[in-house]
Amino acid sequence: MDVKNNIKEFEKKLSGTGCRLVAVSKTKPNALILNAYEGGFKDFGENKIQDLVVKHEALPKDIRWHMIGHLQRNKVKYIADFVYLIHAVDSLKLLKEINKQGVKADRIIPCLLQVHIASESTKFGLNEDELFYLIERPEFEEMHNIQIKGLMGMATNTMDKNQVRTEFRYLKSLFDRLKDAYRSPRLDMKELSMGMSGDYEIAIEEGATIVRIGSAIFGERNYQAR
Ligand SMILES: *Cc1c(COP(=O)(O)O)cnc(C)c1O
Q: How far is the CA of 139 from the centre of ligand 1 (A)?
């Protein structure tokens, strides 16, 4: 795979859209990540803490690591001092733990709240009520070592483009509501992380500011061979 070139092509497609690329390097070797890095690219996404830690240790320290996968509370401590953006916060309990580790690491950890927008029940995330409930908790205001930078969502894995578009549009509407109606130092609503290799074009049309692209850059993943 010519990863460096694939990223250049994506950046061309994204230029002028207001949308940035996170290259999802999960299951892929460091050599491929370095190939992209040497081309000047720095935003990479992983979905497992263990892989994120190992890659962070082995690779250049100015890489911006995005944690895009479901996060277990007891593992937050391993990434708290370096993670650039946590995309998949889906509970107040998890947010509290991230805040606690942020205190220890003496930094404010940028987070996105993950909203469940797909029809599949297997995808993680808050529903609309849970999202607003979380934002309105008094404890939310007390968490000085996190900041919510926006929302993240994954659309249904389907050929039905209208359904995907409807789901992204719904996420954008929640983003706009939060942005317009809530004032809090804990909220800095700038990012809408939606769109992957199969549906990023629709996501960009619907207002994504971050697309998370894996296989279209790094090639298909082979989980069995891991
Ligand atoms: C794997 C993954 C991606 C990238 O998926 P591709 O279809 O390979 O582009 C994006 N977001 C999340 C949360 C993922 O786990």
A: 32
Q: At the topology level of CATH, where does 3-218 sit?
A: TIM Barrel (3.20.20)
d(CA 66, CA 137): 26
The residue contributing the CA closest to ligand 1 atom 1 is 214
Q: Which atom of ligand 1 is nearest to the CA of 218?
A: 8
- pLDDT tens digit at each of 226 positions of the chain: 789 999 999 999 999 999 999 999 999 999 999 999 999 999 999 999 999 999 999 999 999 999 999 999 999 999 999 999 999 999 999 999 999 999 999 999 999 999 999 998 877 899 999 999 999 999 999 999 999 999 999 999 999 999 999 999 999 999 999 999 999 999 999 999 999 999 999 999 999 999 999 999 999 987 654 3
Tell me how far apart the alpha carbons of residues 61 and 157 are, in angstroms, rounded to a whole number: 34
How far apart CA 146 and CA 148 sit, in angstroms, is: 7
For the chain, domain boundaries = 3-218
157 lines ligand 1 (CB under 6 A): no
